[in-house]
Amino acid sequence: MTYKLVALDVDGTLLNDEHEMTERTKNTVMEAARQGIEIVLCTGRGPQNSIPFMESMGLEGYVISHNGAATVEVATRTIVHQFEMDRGGLTPFMEYCREQGIHFDINTAFEMYVDHVEALAGPVRYMYENFLMMPSNLPAWEALADPVVKFTAFGESADLDRVFEAWSKWTLPFNMLRSGEYFIDLMHQEASKGNALAQLAAKRGYKPEEVLAIGNYYNDITMLTYAGMGIAMDNSPVEVKAAADAITASNNEDGVHEALVKYCLS
């Protein structure tokens, strides 16, 4: 099968555990693009800290950001599509996090907000620095002009396990998922990587069987099952591997390189 669109998750997939894209993987992605395959990053990150990876490879096109909540054109920073959340519905989740001491941020397509940016320290500040995105102070809702697309809770894995269990018992107006060991994301009910990838593929004229997707975590399952070929990294949880059509090497062993050579370049 000739794949025309390749969707790549970023953290835990395209990047190794040092948050770096190796030269080997970078060169293979670029070679796939030179051969006419369209590359799209499909990530939980926002466009501000995912587009630079595309630019470092000399690629234009699109990034599907915020786990599918906002799709953005690389060259123009134009929002192609976004799933707007009901801000009022976030109030109980914000109150819960404040009461339980769980850090959270609020995301529009291009901006990120927290309660007290000046108080960021320790693991929370380190997390933002690692992901190359420093937030601003959250204004009153009426002063926030742009749609909210994602709410993220961040903390120790065991703490988030308890939060996820508690919120799972609520009547949820949002799509809730674990986007990483230390993250819980809330988004519009229809926002997912799979839905956003399906919309972009249709816009670009590709059939599902012409799409290959590579990912490593629960938030990647919808795109792995949408794509004609869904590939899980070896560092994926067992449920993600079960949802995939194939498994490649881990993110620390250039698994994206291995998959592209096998399925796109050979």
From TrEMBL:
<dbReference type="InterPro" id="IPR006379">
    <property type="entry name" value="HAD-SF_hydro_IIB"/>
</dbReference>
<dbReference type="InterPro" id="IPR036412">
    <property type="entry name" value="HAD-like_sf"/>
</dbReference>
<protein>
    <submittedName>
        <fullName>Cof-type HAD-IIB family hydrolase</fullName>
    </submittedName>
</protein>
<dbReference type="InterPro" id="IPR000150">
    <property type="entry name" value="Cof"/>
</dbReference>
<dbReference type="GO" id="GO:0016787">
    <property type="term" value="F:hydrolase activity"/>
</dbReference>
<dbReference type="Pfam" id="PF08282">
    <property type="entry name" value="Hydrolase_3"/>
</dbReference>
<dbReference type="InterPro" id="IPR023214">
    <property type="entry name" value="HAD_sf"/>
</dbReference>
<keyword id="KW-0378">Hydrolase</keyword>
